[in-house]
């Protein structure tokens, strides 16, 4: 077992876990997005989907615990590595200038993943408070899932926070997705371009996809 | 209009030793030939400082032809200055404009403590090499050349990795002061050749453990190291090291 602990506490091991948890969370995003798209199909279909899902008590419990573990692992490692990386350079440079030609990168602050990560965390907490726990904006007894979604998404705070949250999430993914492959050693001249493209497209799809729900709720409902 | 000679304002980090805090000093330098190398420009400054009875600026250098890796310094926030795949000693003053202000700082990393002014202690790199960056199996006398066939593309990749000069620019340029580009180059050059294969697992485990112990940061795949590297070491080496480490972790026989 020693070898496992040693590997997981090494800098490379932490990156593996970061990458794997990140990619698995990406998988969750896809299923979540796919489910939500039923909102556009119709109230009946969406309600049916939501009810069927909620009936799978055991499955749901496993999924929720699994997601929670993935999320917490990703988060803890982010905090630990960020702290370690900060202490690897205690005194900063007076002048910083990138040698990479990409103008985009100068726009990205140094601790980009950290900042976007923290914003996404805030967004997810708000999302859970709204939808999972129903604390902030509780609806009437026996409200159908479709009505609940529309009601919550039309709330001005939710609306703004969600749009901002998913856009920031998109930025997080635009680096995170392809970065996970590099961390796992999956780099190959044949596929690198494809992975980069897939990462960017995935980020755009997730951001646009999830942003479409509050927009739809406000404009068309 | 290009000048044959330029005037410069230099803002240089001065620090007598590791124990005391350093600070920036500004110097005016006039009539610097644009044909001078960056280190020659510093030589000229030091001559003037010595004549004025002041302490010259300490900086590391040896070969002055881009092969020893001693001369690293941060020039206007860029490791080895603005040119790609160029060491500080190979950088020339024609890259600068008349009346430019140039900020010169030492590599900054917890693992590279400042010894004096622009000179840092890079022996953490040596300790990473000592941890496993060699081949220790006894193979007797050197075999005839060409008795071990090595495909040209492997040999080329190994040679590319071996061109790392250990200058530390990758650490200096990385926002996390990570030494992964250096370590991965050293892991790769041996993993790619038959001579290094038998110890490859053990090697990567030991070298990475040492790298962590020396308090370098970890890679966030930003790519600044690759852009700053004077030897053109590619990020592919980091991916290879990640693979090697994963393989070694899963397959090695340690407990
Ligand atoms: S990898 Fe490049 S930047 Fe890093 S030490 Fe080697 S030569 Fe210098
Ligand atoms: S002095 Fe040797 S590489 Fe610059």
Lay out the secondary structure.
The complex is a heterodimer of chains A (221) and B (255).
Chain A: H1 2-9, H2 11-36, H3 38-41, H4 43-55, H5 57-87, H6 103-107, H7 112-132, H8 145-154, H9 156-183, H10 189-220
Helix pairs in contact in A: 1-2, 2-5, 2-9, 2-10, 7-9, 8-10, 9-10
Chain B: E1 5-14, E2 23-33, H1 38-51, E3 74-75, E4 78-79, E5 100-105, E6 114-116, E7 119-120, H2 123-132, H3 152-162, H4 169-173, H5 180-191, H6 194-197, H7 200-213, H8 224-228, H9 236-251
Parallel strand pairs in B: 1-5
Antiparallel strand pairs in B: 1-2, 3-4, 3-5, 6-7
Helix pairs in contact in B: 2-7, 3-5, 5-7, 5-9, 7-9
The site of iron/sulfur cluster (SF4) has 16 residues of chain B, from helix 4 and helix 5.
Put the structure in a nutshell.
With 221 residues, chain A is mainly alpha-helical.
In round numbers, the mean pLDDT of chain A is: 90
Evaluate the radius of gyration of chain A.
20 Å
Give the C-level CATH assignment of chain A.
Mainly Alpha
- Annotated CATH architecture of chain A: Up-down Bundle
CATH topology (fold) name of the largest domain in chain B? Fumarate Reductase Iron-sulfur Protein, Chain B, domain 2
Distance between the amino and carboxyl termini of chain B: 68 Å
CA(first)-CA(last) distance of chain A: 56 Å
Can you walk me through this structure?
The complex is a heterodimer of chains A (221) and B (255). The mean pLDDT of chain A is 90. The longest helix of chain A is centred in the last third of the chain and has 32 residues, at 189-220. Chain A is an all-alpha fold. Chain A has one domain (2-220): 3 helical TM bundles of succinate and fumarate reductases, CATH 1.20.1300. Chain A contains 10 helices and no strands. Helix content of chain A is 81%, strand content 0%. Chain B is of the alpha+beta class and 255 residues long. Chain B has 2 domains: 5-105, Beta-grasp domain (Ubiquitin-like (UB roll)); 122-250, Alpha-helical ferredoxin (Fumarate Reductase Iron-sulfur Protein, Chain B, domain 2), CATH 1.10.1060. Chain B has helices at residues 38-51, 123-132, 152-162, 169-173, 180-191, 194-197, 200-213, 224-228, 236-251; strands at 5-14, 23-33, 74-75, 78-79, 100-105, 114-116, 119-120. A 5-stranded mixed sheet of chain B has the order 2-1-5-3-4. Chain B has a two-stranded antiparallel ribbon with strand order 6-7. In chain B, helix 2 (123-132) packs antiparallel against helix 7, helix 3 runs antiparallel to helix 5 (180-191) and helix 5 (180-191) packs antiparallel against helix 7 (200-213). The radius of gyration of chain B is 21 Å and the shape is elongated. The interface between A and B is large, with 42 and 53 residues.
């Amino acid at each position: 077992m020693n070898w496992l602990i040693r590997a997981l506490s090494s800098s490379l091991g932490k990156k593996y876990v970061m990458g794997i948890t990140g990619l698995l969370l990406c998988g969750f995003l896809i299923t979540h997005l796919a489910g939500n798209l039923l909102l556009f199909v119709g109230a009946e279909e969406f309600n049916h989907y939501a009810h069927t899902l909620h009936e799978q008590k055991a499955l749901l419990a496993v999924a929720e615990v699994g997601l929670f573990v993935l999320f917490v692992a990703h988060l803890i490692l982010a905090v630990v590595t960020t702290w370690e990386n900060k202490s690897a350079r205690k005194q900063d440079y007076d002048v910083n200038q990138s040698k990479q030609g990409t103008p985009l990168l100068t726009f990205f602050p140094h601790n980009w993943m950290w900042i976007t990560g923290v914003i996404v965390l805030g967004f997810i907490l708000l999302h859970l408070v709204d939808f999972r726990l129903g604390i902030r904006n509780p609806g009437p007894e026996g409200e159908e899932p479709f009505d609940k979604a529309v009601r919550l998404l039309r709330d001005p705070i939710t609306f703004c926070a969600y749009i901002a949250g998913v856009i920031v999430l998109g930025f997080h993914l635009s680096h995170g997705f392809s970065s996970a492959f590099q961390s796992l050693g999956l780099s190959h001249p044949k596929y690198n371009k494809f992975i980069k493209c897939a990462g960017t497209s995935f980020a755009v799809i997730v951001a646009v996809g999830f942003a479409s729900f509050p927009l739809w709720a406000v404009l068309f409902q | 209009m290009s000048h044959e000679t330029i005037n410069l304002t230099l803002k240089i980090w001065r620090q007598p030793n590791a124990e005391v805090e350093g600070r920036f000093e500004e110097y005016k330098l006039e009539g610097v030939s644009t044909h001078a190398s960056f280190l020659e420009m510093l030589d000229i400054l030091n001559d003037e400082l010595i004549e004025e009875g002041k302490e010259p600026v300490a900086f590391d250098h040896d070969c002055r032809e881009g092969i020893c890796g001693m001369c690293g310094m941060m020039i206007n926030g860029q490791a080895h200055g603005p040119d790609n795949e160029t060491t500080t000693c190979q950088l020339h003053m024609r890259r600068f404009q008349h009346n430019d202000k140039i900020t010169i700082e030492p590599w900054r990393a917890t693992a590279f403590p400042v010894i004096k002014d622009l000179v840092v202690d890079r022996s953490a790199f040596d300790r990473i090499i000592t941890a496993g960056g060699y081949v220790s199996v006894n193979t007797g006398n050197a075999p005839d050349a060409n008795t071990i066939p090595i495909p040209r593309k492997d040999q080329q990749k190994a040679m590319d990795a071996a061109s790392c000069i250990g200058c530390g620019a990758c650490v200096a340029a990385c926002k996390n002061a990570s030494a992964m580009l250096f370590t991965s180059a050293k892991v790769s050059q041996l993993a790619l050749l038959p001579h290094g294969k038998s110890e490859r697992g053990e090697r990567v485990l030991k070298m990475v453990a040492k790298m962590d112990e020396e308090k370098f940061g970890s890679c966030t795949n930003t790519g600044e190291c690759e852009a700053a590297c004077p030897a053109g070491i590619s990020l592919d080496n980091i991916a290879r090291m990640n693979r090697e480490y994963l393989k070694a972790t899963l397959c090695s026989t340690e407990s």
